[in-house]
Amino acid sequence: MRKLEDKALIVVERLSETYPEAKCELDFGNTFQLLVATMLSAQSTDKKVNEITSELFKQYKTPEDFISMTQAELEEKIKKIGLYRNKAKNILEMCRILLTKFNGEVPGNMDDLISLPGVGRKTANVVLSNGFGIPAIAVDTHVFRVSNRIGLANSKSVDETENQLMSVVPRDKWSLAHHLLIWHGRRICEARKPKCSICPIAFTCDYFNRENQ
Ligand code: SF4
Question: Are the C-beta atoms of 207 and 194 separated by less than 8 Å?
Answer without folding.
Answer: yes
